[in-house]
Every structure is written in structure tokens, then in C-alpha cells.
Amino acid sequence: SPTSPAVAAFYGLPAVDHDLQAFPAHQSLLKAYDKLQRAKAAYWSK
Prior knowledge:
Blueprint: H1 5-9, H2 24-44
């Protein structure tokens, strides 16, 4: 079966799923963004 161009172009890199669990830095940024959004919602709901 033929390999997709994206797989061939990035040979050797870890597989990536849709929620980007393979990237710890990205997960950390998402957690920080979520924390910021919760703080903003709490502040503006007063």
C-alpha cells in the first residue's frame, strides 16, 4: 500500500493523534490557556 506524502515527509517523527498527546509542551500550553479562561470567566461573571 502506498505511503501518504505526510508520513514520508516526516519519517522518523513520533506519531501524532488528534489531541496532540505526543507533545508535552503543547499540553502544558493548553492547560495554562484553560486556567486563564476559567479565571477570566470567574472575574467577568461578578
